Fold each of these.
Amino acid sequence: MWMIYKGGQALADELRETDVAPHGVAMWADLLVPTHYDLFPNNRDNPAFVVDYLFRTYRAQKFHMMAPGERLLYVKSPVEA
């Protein structure tokens, strides 16, 4: 199961990969990062399912799947004038 956060607020929970990707695209997320997988016994969904669905369905959506212990430094591109 997946949750969607924006601005520190939980927007939706208990989602499948086919739910997460459209929500992220609809809220114009610049970068989708599947996280919190395998932290709890009832949350063992494979993040590769989200990444695969994004790759096949939303080719223009940026995403990053992190490895355990990896840090991500995110700098949004400036808006073109």
Amino acid sequence: MSQIKKPKFSVLLVDDDPDSMDTDIEYAKGVVESTGHEFQFYVDKDGKGVVGILKDKLIDIIATDKNLIDDNLDGIKLIPKIRAENPYVDILFYSGQGITEKDRTD
């Protein structure tokens, strides 16, 4: 009897900090592997390649740093671009910075 293979998940990670990205990938691998699923990671180092990746790949989950270095393009500003390409993809935001009072009112 053959074993049922669980689906492969595709994850797009957007982070401009290479140290954070390595840690994030290792953590995510552990989480996904613990469920028995396979995964494929795609990486965008500044948020500018997200649209191109979404046009070429079927992505299940996008994990993006809220605070990218480019002031003109942060994780929040990526939402309309992401939704234009794939309105159903799950988006997870994270940040290595604390929450400020301004963040709470935005």
Amino acid sequence: MRHLPYFPCFDCRRNTVLNDYYMVDDSLWIFAIRAELREIENLGFVPIRLCVVFLCFHCLERRIGRKLVSSDFPPFICNEENAFVRRLRGSTE
């Protein structure tokens, strides 16, 4: 039996590997995870590549206080293959 990797949303613990694998604009991500970045820096560590937490779409929207829009997602392969991002961009392919 094959097991999927488990990358839990930091807030709700939902496995983000299923449908929530995406990348957003760096400035939006920094805004969303600013508390975690401060905590890491206070411990004397330097965050590497800003990938210190995973967030599902719903929890990211809650943190930024608005719905995500297509311009939040840079043209990366993971975004091109994500059904949620494709819907935002008006593509049903």
